[in-house]
């Protein structure tokens, strides 16, 4: 009898162990079925807080981040939760924002490197809960491929236009923060090649189908501007916009270590050590004389094709430009850019 009880007890124990291990064995299969693993890094308070925010946009030109531009975002966040999104890289922004700049409840970096993760409900909610959001640099083609037409896109536009929190980006993150954007889906392109072939396969532009920040309608941005000689490329983008869509094209070029901080009333403050360049056609009806497949761009208009106002950055953003009226706070001398059969020129 004792032996029988022992055998029954042993069988019961083995059966019980098997039942307890079932959820553990099921988790990896369930995770694989859901797709890529979500990676996030959290610094600070894990509890979601709700703070009063003020909307605004930051267009940062790349290289070293502009501390005072991030502080501008923190101030507008009301000290809430600051979210950083990226498609590559790690958590470098966490300590920088939370500890060095300080003033927020938490910083969470989310790695979103697939459309599957961009449609993840947890990712969507983390973004929607943010009081400030920053898009790191990288490759904007990844952002377009991974985030466009997903819950991430919807959540970003919710932050920008409904919840009205500060949203910014640097380099590739800045490239997608305008109604018209250079997607780089076929790689990058230099100014020289863009001017010689405005319809080259690498001249991939999107319009009105991704992010929709205020005051940037019919506008394209470009970064690392003076450092990578991108003046001609921006003019080529604008020429394509006027030719393809019949719109009055506008462009904003931002130097490295420089940020354009756009207030909720459309006043853009230039913060940093470089300049921002606000470009518009000199006459709204005067697009390029030639912008066609297989030919170089020709946009001369008496050497006054594009009117440019350069605004020098300062530590506090004293140099401004009104994006509602497209006029500078203080009028400096206007410069004119033009293209003569694929060759970029300036006047004066």
Give structural notes:
α5 (121-128) runs parallel beside α7 (151-163). The model is unreliable at 1-33 (pLDDT under 50). The protein has helices spanning 2-34, 67-77, 92-101, 115-118, 121-128, 140-147, 151-163, 172-175, 191-196, 231-245; strands at residues 39-44, 56-60, 81-86, 106-111, 132-135, 166-170, 180-182, 205-207, 219-222, 250-254, 258-262, 267-272, 275-281, 306-312, 319-322, 327-328, 335-340, 343-347. The protein has a domain at 36-177: Rossmann fold (3-Layer(aba) Sandwich), CATH 3.40.50.880. 32% of the residues lie in helices and 26% in strands. The radius of gyration is 25 Å and the shape is globular.
**Nearest-angstrom radius of gyration?**
25 Å
Task: Give the helices and strands as they follow along the chain.
Answer: HEEHEHEHHEHHEHEHEEHEEEEEEEEE
> Distance between the terminal alpha carbons, to the nearest Å?
107 Å
Strand order of the largest sheet: 1-4-3-5-6-2-11-12-15-16
Helical/strand content category? alpha/beta
CATH top-level class of the domain at 36-177? Alpha Beta
Helix content: 25-40%
């Amino acid at each position: 009898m004792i032996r029988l009880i022992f055998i029954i007890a042993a069988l019961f124990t083995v059966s019980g162990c098997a039942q307890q291990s079932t959820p553990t064995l099921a988790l990896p299969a369930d995770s694989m079925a859901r797709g890529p693993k979500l990676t996030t890094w959290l610094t600070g308070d894990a509890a979601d807080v709700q703070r009063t925010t003020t909307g605004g946009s930051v267009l940062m030109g790349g290289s070293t981040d502009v501390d005072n531009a991030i502080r501008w975002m923190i101030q507008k966040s009301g000290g809430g939760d600051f979210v950083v999104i990226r498609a590559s890289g790690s958590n470098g922004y966490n300590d920088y924002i939370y500890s060095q700049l300080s003033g927020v409840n938490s910083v969470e970096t989310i790695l979103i490197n697939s459309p599957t993760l961009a449609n993840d409900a947890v990712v969507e909610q983390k973004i929607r809960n943010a009081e400030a959001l920053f898009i790191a640099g990288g490759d904007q083609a990844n952002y377009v491929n991974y985030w466009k037409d997903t819950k991430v896109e919807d959540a970003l536009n919710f932050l920008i236009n409904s919840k009205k929190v500060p949203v910014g980006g640097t380099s590739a993150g800045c490239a997608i923060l305008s109604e018209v954007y250079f997607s780089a889906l076929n790689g990058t392109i230099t100014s020289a090649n863009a001017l010689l072939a405005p319809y080259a396969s690498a001249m991939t532009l999107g319009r009105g189908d991704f992010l929709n920040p205020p005051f940037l309608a019919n506008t394209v941005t470009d970064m690392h501007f003076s450092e990578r000689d991108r003046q001609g490329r921006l003019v080529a983008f604008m020429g394509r916009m006027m030719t393809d869509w019949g719109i009055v094209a506008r462009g904003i070029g931002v130097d490295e270590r420089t940020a354009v901080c756009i207030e909720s009333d459309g006043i853009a403050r230039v913060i940093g050590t470089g300049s921002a360049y606000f470009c518009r056609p000199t006459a709204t009806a005067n697009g390029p004389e030639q912008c066609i497949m297989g030919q170089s761009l020709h946009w001369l208009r008496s050497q006054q094709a594009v009117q440019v106002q350069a605004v020098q950055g300062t530590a506090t953003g004293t140099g401004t430009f009104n994006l509602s009226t497209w006029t500078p706070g203080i009028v400096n001398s206007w410069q004119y850019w033009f293209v003569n059969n694929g060759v970029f020129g300036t006047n004066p």
